[in-house]
Amino acid sequence: MARKIGRTKPDRRDRPAAPQAGTLPSRDDILAFLSTADGKAGKREIARAFGLKGGDKIGLKKLLKELAGEGAIAGRKSALRQTSTLSPVSVLDITGRTSDGDLIARPAEWNESEGPTPEILIVDADAGKRHSGDAAIGIGDRILARMLPLDTPDEAGRTLHARPLKRLAKGERRQLGILRASARGGGTIEPISRKELKSWTLDARDLGDAKDGDLVRFELTPTGRFSTPRARIVESLGNPSDQRKISLIAVHAYGLPDEFPERVIADAEALEAAPLGRRTDLRDVPLITIDPADARDHDDAVFAEPDSDPKNPGGHIVTVAIADVAHYVQSGSRLDREAELRGNSIYFPDRVVPMLPEKISNNLCSLREGEDRACLAVRMVYDRDGEKLRHTFVRGLMRSAAKLSYQEAQAAFDGAPSDKCKPLLETALKPLWNAYQAMKAARERRQPLNLDLPERKIKLDDQGRVAGVLIPDRLEAHRLIEEMMIAANVAAAETLEKAKTPLVYRVHDQPSREKLKALRDFLATLDLVVPPHGELKPAALNRVLARAKDLPVPELVNEVVLRSQAQAEYNPDNIGHFGLNLARYAHFTSPIRRYADLIVHRALIKALKFGDDGQTDEEAQRLTKTAQAISDAERRAMAAERETIDRLIAMHLAEKIGATFDGRISGVTRSGLFVRLKDTGADGFIPISTLGREFFNHAEDTHALIGSRSGEMYQLGDIVSVKLIEAIPAAGALRFEMVSDGKRRANSGVSKVPVRQLPRNKRGRR
Fold it and tell me: Which helix (H) or strand (E) segment is 144 a member of?
């Protein structure tokens, strides 16, 4: 039997001319007729259309039987149809890549019983992005595409190519879940999304080759007008627990490209280290890298020295050198297209999904100790008060004098240098510390927003299980590197503005009017005041945060101020950075892991005439769309990282159902409370119906739920004890029950705020 290949459904105008009357039509003639027929099309209609009579009808009957046997047509002889055809414009799911990095798709709808699902090569993958302004499409996306049938199969045997027209909304994509197989056949699919905590049943015939515990992609199939839909597994994606890679869920849920195409890897492997050439030789400058102890790549190095200029007494010169990724990843190359598609590196506790292949990120562009590396460096001159006087950029070749961890550097700053640090004290470490003290003073005068936001770090054991959840100490060594990176980013933005070279800024808007009003209303209940919209500066919020330290609820104030903030993003139009209190700011210091920084590097190369591998005109013209795409990629990465941490912790806590934990109320909604546990930082939910035997009203301005009879109140920031009732590791979801009593108020103040009363449940609770 010949292998059936999917074909497109032609427009009526494209129908081939009918053969001469009395001539038996070809297979393609019949399929073309069925694909464009209006109404019923059976054997009689085909014979009439092609003028067949007598013995020719016997030949037609035989031909129709062959087509039916191959699965090309189906139906009764009086009502035939072409099976599983694709329209000229069809909905496709992006399912993978070729070895060249090109995207592969399959039809979103296809009846498997009528023939193998065709594989479709996506050509001109940026077409949909250009036409609609969408971000680049990737694996897991659903698209609308124009089909391009081929006269002869391509080298992989494909007879269909497609050009994207539009990326469809996320809600139209297939769903993911974890299969829990039943010993009796069939099973259920557990959700991986907290927004849809619903399990779906499936029959044994719909399991495919999936095994218990596998992450699966599934569809819902209706079973009747009044019946609950059942699931059908479309694809098995592996077992996150067996592979010790819980991040596998996020990789597939967000369509993250976690493997590089073979040709991209080959391009990276063919690269050679940059020679000195016309570069500035910085190899005698004792630049050092200061990073986390477990860092695998090092893309920034720092050096400081006293300014010897008598016109600048007590001044400092700070040099920040950044790996020259633009030398290796040039605009329009396969490496560049892959980096833009990814947007940034994504860091999970159990793996990294890098933006660039390892040959670049961990070798050629990693500023390894004692090895020559290409770089872009900025030399910044400061006065004794930490105010920058001027700066200059160079394209150079450097050699790191030492690789230090934050802890090593901090010990040296504190007067307890290790043997490795002792030779660096006078030449590198003390000058860095002195320069930082001046820059720190200038920062304090500038008054950026000073929120205290500790971050969780998950420690895994050899089996990929959570061994502990840490909140690393915030050292002055961290702040030193952070301040010098911010200064370099500002210098990059200033240089490009002065040269009138297009760039992507890192912008952060001030709080919206609505969020600021909500913040002011809440702070007023604590006798704290902030200026109105248009007059607000970070310094005003810092004063609020400082005053809150003397109140019983400093964490609550920090939380509410944080929630009032806009989200930072990338944009070629500058509105400044509210949080840092800077007029212009661009990301320059991490081109190994952020595409935005690579864009800025190329812009500097062009503006300063450092070479012919800088920003191209085509790249400059599409900065708006690129900025949107990398902003989307950043949000996607943040969500994927956060959800993976939540899943790991939920898996860790699943063995502790019934245990009691200390935590803090981290969210208040009309339907209940979110609580963040003290030890692990895990977030869980308490439904309002479980709080007590009375109405609880939602007071929006005070971020509280208040009992209508007792005045008992649970408020954002309250320290509470909770019992773990349920854990769904695949979704990272936890459900708690409140153990602590709420705060008692003689007057709840409910009448002053909008409230929502909830009905009693069956147990008499509301």
Answer: strand 142-149
